[in-house]
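CHAIN AND CONFORMATION:

***
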Amino acid sequence: MEIHYLIRSHSDGQYLVARPRVNDEKAAFLLLFREHFEALSYLNTHAADIRDRFGVESASQPQLKSIIDRWGFTGVGLVEDALIPRIQFLALNH
């Protein structure tokens, strides 16, 4: 079973998302990391001053589907390089 890692706010429970402009609409893509340390590297690189406000949690494929459906995300953004960052966006058909 494949596990991905998500970043979530301690204060309000919101997941870290990317909001690229898609067809002049704001879409929300849930950011996924392949490894726990990649999510931590992302926080350390891009949010060092507030990283203590976030946690990293793991999710299996069935859990991801449930999260995406519940929160109404457009798709996922698979972070391929946490330092640059380089993200592959995958839109989902609901």
Summary: The two ends are 23 Å apart (CA to CA).
